[in-house]
Design goal:
mainly beta, 4-stranded mixed beta sheet
Length: 117
């Protein structure tokens, strides 16, 4: 499985084996962050605010799930738009979890460095 990190018009495909990534943004700059997801299994990605830090440095819009194929049960991806709000560092923790289970099956961390270019 792969995850995509899209900056402006450039696309970089990053192996999902990496548990942490770094994104550099200027204030006001936006990027799309995606993680593979198959909600038909009950597992969905969410932002774990308690495990995150510096969320006041970024604005995050949840763009929701995008289906991959048109057949039922097909995997797709969950998308977020991340915008640099204020100079500094943010760490966004993502949890892949069924809502009724106490612990996530998988976690990912995205470090966002916001600085003028």
């Amino acid at each position: 499985m792969k995850r995509r990190l899209i900056l402006a018009a450039a696309a970089v495909i990053i192996s999902q084996a990496a548990a942490a990534e770094t994104l550099r943004l200027a204030p006001g700059e936006r990027a799309r962050f995606t993680l593979k997801e198959n909600p038909s299994t009950g597992y969905v990605w969410r932002i774990d605010a308690a495990a995150s830090a510096g969320l006041d440095r970024v604005a995050i819009a949840d763009a929701g799930h995008k289906r991959g194929a048109s057949m039922p049960g097909a995997p797709g991806e969950h998308r977020w738009i991340i915008c640099g709000a204020h100079a500094g560092r943010a760490v966004i923790a993502f949890a892949h979890q069924r809502p009724w289970e106490p612990a996530p099956a998988e976690t990912r961390r995205l470090e966002v460095l916001v600085a003028p270019r």
